[in-house]
Amino acid sequence: MRIFISGATGWIGSAVTDELLAHDYEVVGLARSEAGAAALEAKGARAHLGDLDDPQSLVSGAKDADGVIHLAMNHGLRDPAAAGRLEHAAVSALLEELAGTDRTFLLASGLAGLAQGRAATEEDPSPFRGPDALRGGSENLALDSADQGLRPVALRFAATTHGMRDHGFTATLAQVAREKGYVGFVGDGANRWPAVHVSDAARLVRLALEQAPAGFRAHAVAEEGVPMRDIAAALGERFGLPTRSITPEATADHFGWIGRFVGMDAPASATLTRSVLGWSPTGPSLLEDIRSGAYDEA
């Protein structure tokens, strides 16, 4: 089976590419550069040159594929609205290509902002709709197409998808701690973040490709919620740094681009995902990864 993956050279995308290749899938990966193309071909995948800025390059990559996994995302830290519109246009183009073909479309999404005061579940719909919404409202755009002759599935990744070479949420916390000389957390640090090891996340993507029903929201969550103060304590222990509370008013100045998220309480459950897909995470926990040195060079 041939699968087209956008974001195939990214951190999660690379793990997904490896997982599919190990299970005898033919992978065609989107690459934005010759270096990215060479990296894909070295591991046994085919490379397709293109970019999110050019939706037709995504469409041409998807044309001969049996399924599409859309993992690429311009997070647009300086202009989130423009990034959302770009994502909306890319997903719209892919959905138009796949409509009426009964092919599978897996779409990367997130977990933040889905529930208040409790763990988000797979039954919680995304509140984000339209091109100007977070991620361009792409999750709803995709799932609303379930009656158009394709099988859309949302892949909701924990922000703290962790492991060696992670350059996202936890890596940024580690970098800020080194720069400031202490590890910060907001308020009392009781707010929680879900977590999953990247190898478990990649396996979940494969299982969703093989088994998830149309319209399913798969939660890549191994730990429902790790308190921020525990994350800070593990980073402090590993780096020999003290921990310190940051006031909500000072978060943007202290944490930079993750300041808008770091104080959120965003636990999430994966009970239904485990049941439907038969997924059982086996990788290390977030705190185990930190303590074993996964973020020493972040």
Looking at the overall shape, the CATH architecture of the largest domain is 3-Layer(aba) Sandwich
Number of domains: 2
What best-fitting shape do the alpha-carbon axes yield? globular
| Helix count from the secondary structure assignment | 11
CATH topology description of the largest domain: Rossmann fold
Order of helices and strands: EHEHEHEHEHEEHEEHEEHEHHH
Strand content: 15-25%
β-strand number? 12
- Please outline the major beta sheet: 7 strands, parallel
Secondary-structure-derived class: alpha/beta
CATH class of the largest domain: Alpha Beta
Low-pLDDT windows of residues: none
CATH superfamily of the largest domain: NAD(P)-binding Rossmann-like Domain
Describe the strand arrangement of the main beta sheet, using strand numbers: 3-2-1-4-5-6-10
Give the termini distance in whole angstroms: 36 Å
Rounded radius of gyration (Å): 19 Å
> Averaging pLDDT over every residue, what do you get?
95
- Helical residues, percent: 25-40%
Domain NAD-dependent epimerase/dehydratase: 3-213
Region (Disordered): 118-139
Protein name: Nucleoside-diphosphate-sugar epimerase
GO molecular function: aldehyde dehydrogenase (NAD+) activity
Describe the 3D structure.
With 298 residues, the protein is α/β, with parallel strands linked by helices. It folds into 2 domains: 2-159 and 196-222, NAD(P)-binding Rossmann-like Domain (Rossmann fold, 3-Layer(aba) Sandwich), CATH 3.40.50.720; 163-194 and 224-267 and 284-291, UDP-galactose 4-epimerase, domain 1. Helix content is 37%, strand content 20%. The chain is built from 11 helices and 12 strands. The chain has helices spanning 11-22, 34-42, 55-62, 80-98, 138-143, 169-180, 198-211, 228-239, 251-255, 271-277, 286-291, and strands at 2-6, 26-31, 46-49, 67-70, 104-110, 151-157, 160-162, 183-186, 192-197, 217-220, 223-227, 243-246. The strands form 3 sheets. A 7-stranded parallel beta sheet has the order 3-2-1-4-5-6-10, sandwiched between helices. Helix 4 (80-98) links the parallel strand 4 (67-70) and strand 5 (104-110). The protein is globular. It starts with a strand and ends in a 7-residue tail after the last helix. The model has no long low-confidence stretch (mean pLDDT 95).
